[in-house]
Amino acid sequence: MPVTNFSHPDPYKYQTGFDSYHETEAVEGALPIGQNSPQKAPHGLYAEKLSGTAFTAPRHENKQTWVYRIIPAAAHENFIAEDADSYHTRMTTETQKLHHIPNQLRWNPFDLDEKVDWVHGLHLIAGSGDPTQKQGLGILMYAAGKDMGKEAFYSADGDFLIVPQHGVLDIQTELGRITLRPNEICVIPRGVRYRVTLPDGPVRGYICELYQGHYQLPELGPIGSNCLANARDFQAPVAAFDDEEESEYKLYSKFNNTLFSARQNHTPFDIVAWHGNYYPFKYDLGRFNVIGSISFDHPDPSIFTVLTAPSDHVGTAVADFVIFPPRWLVAEGTFRPPWYHRNTMSEFMGLISGDYDAKVGGGFKPAGASLHNVMSAHGPDSGAFEGASNAELKPQKVGDGSMAFMFESAHMVGVSEWGLKTCQKVQPEYNEHSWKPLKRHFVNPNKKA
């Protein structure tokens, strides 16, 4: 069985189950019985509802959580745009400010940054859509080296799917605390407030911010009821709160990719109890149960989907989160790496650790990335092709010590100015190094000598 992160010391407690209804209280009797909003909530708390969908959403889609807190979330000063120009410039998904290009792109590993905290270490690489219309997604890199102080942050634009590549995140959310390490992922839903501290120093990783809908487990169809990511392996925090009589806090809001801040005279982390199905959660990628071909041909990468965010068109996703963990290949008579292809979906890949088996040339490294946009042709580099074409086809373990992933989207994504130029990580000869060396092997039997 793959090594999981659950064996590492974790100071926090969790509830298990994906999309489950959870209830938790840090003080006995803080959850009211029989009513969500009684005339007087227990222990002098305030009842507050956190809604992730419209009130009238179908029951099976409705996401909401009732929280019981010391002071309501509304008790803060007015928000003021903070460093609006520079933040909006590096985060915007406005179409006219993005570069929509058909070229295959690959980035060298992104830098660590010890000078900034979580809020100021977010950079948009690519994206599509409009958070004001709740359409599309944004793909970000984060790099930070400083703890957030007496501060909290939330995104009104979408759900954050966080994929750590380096370092440990200690995430204090309103609904409880989460420790997050490489080889784990975490989703912070739209609107949930949190702060990030760094117990082991600088951190770096990837984020897919979902403007449209919420992440869910993919349907398994003929696979049956098991395999891929099992619901029982997802973890949600239990209630934990700070009790501070008077404390000055700064609250940051990401609102239409602009950063605002407001002051408040109490901690945002004062929820004593909560119940519902709208909450942060984490998942250990080592628990993913891989399936694959045991006869011939290389199956579609959709069999590696951990989480999906469906669009309005059945079978098409705003975002799929797909991983390529250690696994066995046993298919007979088959070219085992991914085939060469042109895809109507955009594919953004990142590497957490190790080497990706379809890119053996060394240009795709941990903390790096690649983007193959809508209908941009791609596939194994020349070295991977030659090796796989001539390999002895015996059962083979691939990806030992490696974890690659993909954010796949039906949207054509534009690349930000930061991602294309400012970060200075784009490999200018990616295409030339990967596919120009491919040799002609075809011998035309109809051609006369």
TrEMBL record:
Cellular compartments per GO CC: cytoplasm
Enzyme class: oxidoreductase
Named cofactor requirement(s): Fe cation
One protein family per Pfam: HgmA_C
Ligand binding (Fe cation): 341, 347, 378
Residue span(s) of domain Homogentisate 1,2-dioxygenase N-terminal: 13-285
Residues annotated as domain Homogentisate 1,2-dioxygenase C-terminal: 287-442
Annotated positions binding homogentisate: 356, 378
Pathway: Amino-acid degradation; L-phenylalanine degradation; acetoacetate and fumarate from L-phenylalanine: step 4/6
Domain of life assignment: Eukaryota
E.C. designation(s): 1.13.11.5
Alphabetized GO MF terms: homogentisate 1,2-dioxygenase activity; metal ion binding
GO annotation (BP), single: L-tyrosine catabolic process
Annotated active site: 298 (proton acceptor)
Keywords, comma-separated and alphabetical: Dioxygenase, Iron, Metal-binding, Oxidoreductase, Phenylalanine catabolism, Tyrosine catabolism
Family, similarity comment: Belongs to the homogentisate dioxygenase family.
Protein name per its UniProtKB record: homogentisate 1,2-dioxygenase
